[in-house]
């Protein structure tokens, strides 16, 4: 389709709710989106100047547009979700979760069995779930088995077959795990009462079962059947213990879905909690790979539709951290305080823990992806024009004005590159002048890199405030590098980041990974500089004592230190030991210097 044809199509798109599809010149769907107003949304791609490079590339590749008009925004959400899953367009977010989940099945039959399964068969049976782990399913089924006696056999317990005596009770009956419906020892009505109670327990409602058991225990106690009463009491304790572990909020909060999101430059993590009678009956976190510059709102809306569909949720209300548009049928609540806010905070904490665990795993299994994420995050946080793959940090060291030195440490892809570290002895500055020292070392460092045609960093960090940053900028000006390399200063006290020509410092979140890397660079530069400073002072201190001996030169001092390792051992050495190293004449001078008394 030519540009003219595309322009005509843009003018004829209806102003209705619907789903639009972008196709490339091969006819492949490369993006699917939804909109309240198709005309406005689609036109915005071609009239706006997009900040995201990925969005600009997408727009260049659009050769054709298709759209589907629907009745409501809810329909648009569902259709968009289905089309994304079906076509997996290149520029749509990737919902990274395609595994099957376990369900609890209550089989449609006389005297229904209750068991776990991963297969949903449309035979009228009831399926509860899906659950995010088989461990949860087994825990719930163990609870049910401990409370109610259900059959596990797969016999067809038709009424006529039981009356004809076709079946005999098995070992499960003798062990007390089944009441023997196969021989008519338990009525269907009695069995169905148990199934009714089990349904409520699976939904998170323990109230009915607890009430029934307490009533039963009271009856047994009145009839002096204390062993039976004790058995029921143990069941009550099991149920109350399970309830206590699963109830975290007000039991009146029921049939609610809770969603929260945390995200970075590349991924979003959406946590889902399903609440029934104050209990969390389901928890799941979905990882979403961003393809364009999607907002948290867009990601959350897509994830809510996907998760509710996947987990077959029928909840009429959702709790979210901010307003989302997911149709009129579902009530959207943004909690501000109380139990509702507490459960939303819990969901957010789960999302953060999941994200942290994923980072740890990725750092081990896919270090490149970890580095890419860190670089993208630093670019955004520090407002840089490119990712800071190569960073250099400078620090001055002069203690009490002696032996002034400076250090330059280098990080590549967020990690120290120790082979590229450099020390500088200050040559042109007299006395302790941090500003002049910084100007000298920055000039020397980048003059040399330019002369040797070595790659320049994308970011320079100066350990110091506005003064040191201004000094470093003078050197970049002289070398013609100002504006070609990003440069910032970090003040020690409040971790303020200073930019050239900007009097207002930038403050990063104290827990942000960008600030942690900057701090690591600053600390590494400080350590490296102090180490060199100590070495210089030590060398000067060692040499000064020997330099004062008349007739003893540098070569003699080196020989002595190689042999005795320290000035203290030289001072305490016997005359014959010194003679063996430097000869009779020089040995006498050294020995007499240390033994004047």
Automatic annotation (TrEMBL):
Signal peptide: none annotated. InterPro entries: GIY-YIG_endonuc, GIY-YIG_endonuc_sf, GIY-YIG_UvrC_Cho, RuvA_2-like, UVR_dom_sf, UvrABC_protein_C, UvrC, UvrC_RNase_H_dom. PROSITE patterns: GIY_YIG, UVRC. Keywords: Cytoplasm, DNA damage, DNA excision, DNA repair, Excision nuclease, SOS response. It is found in: Cytoplasm. SMART domains: GIYc. Residues 262-476 form the UvrC family homology region profile domain. Its main location: cytoplasm. Residues 15-93 form the GIY-YIG domain. It holds the Pfam family GIY-YIG. The UvrABC repair system catalyzes the recognition and processing of DNA lesions. UvrC both incises the 5' and 3' sides of the lesion. The N-terminal half is responsible for the 3' incision and the C-terminal half is responsible for the 5' incision. PANTHER family: UVRABC SYSTEM PROTEIN C, UVRC/OXIDOREDUCTASE. HAMAP family: UvrC. Interacts with UvrB in an incision complex. Belongs to the UvrC family. This is UvrABC system protein C. It comes from Mesoflavibacter profundi.
């Amino acid at each position: 389709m030519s540009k003219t044809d595309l322009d005509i199509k843009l003018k004829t798109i209806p102003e209705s709710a619907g789903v639009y599809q972008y196709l490339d010149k091969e006819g492949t769907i490369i993006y699917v989106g939804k909109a309240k107003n198709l005309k406005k949304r689609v036109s915005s791609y071609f009239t706006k100047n997009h900040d995201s490079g990925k969005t600009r590339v997408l727009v260049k590749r659009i050769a054709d547009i298709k759209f589907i008009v629907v009745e409501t925004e809810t329909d648009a959400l569902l259709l968009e979700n289905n089309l994304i899953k079906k076509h997996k367009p290149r520029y749509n977010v990737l919902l990274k979760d395609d595994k099957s989940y376990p369900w609890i099945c209550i089989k449609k039959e006389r005297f229904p069995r209750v068991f776990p399964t991963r297969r949903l068969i449309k035979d009228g049976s009831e399926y509860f779930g899906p659950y995010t782990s088989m461990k949860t399913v087994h825990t719930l089924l163990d609870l049910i088995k401990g409370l109610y006696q259900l059959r596990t056999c797969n016999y067809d317990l038709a009424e006529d077959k039981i009356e004809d005596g076709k079946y005999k009770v098995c070992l499960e009956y003798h062990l007390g795990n089944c009441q023997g419906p196969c021989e008519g020892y338990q009525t269907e009505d009695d069995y169905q009462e148990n199934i009714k109670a089990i349904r409520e327990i699976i939904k998170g409602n323990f109230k009915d079962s607890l009430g029934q058991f307490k009533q039963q225990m009271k009856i047994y106690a009145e009839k002096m059947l204390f062993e039976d009463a004790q058995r029921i009491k143990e069941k009550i304790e099991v149920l109350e213990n399970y309830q206590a572990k699963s109830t975290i909020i007000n039991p009146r909060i029921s049939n609610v879905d809770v969603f929260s999101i945390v995200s970075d430059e590349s991924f979003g993590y959406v946590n889902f909690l399903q609440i029934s009678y104050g209990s969390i009956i389901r928890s799941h976190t979905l990882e979403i790979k961003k393809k364009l510059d999607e907002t948290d709102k867009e990601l959350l809306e897509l994830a809510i539709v996907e998760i509710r569909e996947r987990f077959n949720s029928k909840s009429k209300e959702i709790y979210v951290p901010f307003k989302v548009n997911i149709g009129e049928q579902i009530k959207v609540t943004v909690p501000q305080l109380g139990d509702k806010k507490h459960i939303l905070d819990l969901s957010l904490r789960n999302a953060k823990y999941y994200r942290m665990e994923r980072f740890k795993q990725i750092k081990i299994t896919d270090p490149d992806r970890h580095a890419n994420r860190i670089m993208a995050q630093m670019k955004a946080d520090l407002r840089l024009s490119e990712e800071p793959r190569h960073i250099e940090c400078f620090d001055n060291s002069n203690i009490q004005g002696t032996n002034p030195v400076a250090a330059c440490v280098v990080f590549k892809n967020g990690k120290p590159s120790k082979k590229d570290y450099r020390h500088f002895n200050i040559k042109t500055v007299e006395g302790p002048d941090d500003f002049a020292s910084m100007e000298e070392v920055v000039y020397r460092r980048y003059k040399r890199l330019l002369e040797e045609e070595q790659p320049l960093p994308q970011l320079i960090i100066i350990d110091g405030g506005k003064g040191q940053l201004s000094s470093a900028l003078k050197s970049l000006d002289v070398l013609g590098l100002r504006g070609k390399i990003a440069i910032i200063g970090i003040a020690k006290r409040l971790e303020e980041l200073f930019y050239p020509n900007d009097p207002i410092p930038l403050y990063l979140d104290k827990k942000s990974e960008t600030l942690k890397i900057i701090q690591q660079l600053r600390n590494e530069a400080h350590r490296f500089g102090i180490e060199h400073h100590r070495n210089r002072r030590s060398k000067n201190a060692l040499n000064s004592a020997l330099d004062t001996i008349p007739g003893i030169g540098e070569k003699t001092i080196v020989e002595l230190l190689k042999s005795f390792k320290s000035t203290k051992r030289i001072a305490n050495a016997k005359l014959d030991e010194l003679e063996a190293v430097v000869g009779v004449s020089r040995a006498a001078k050294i020995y007499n210097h240390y033994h004047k008394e």
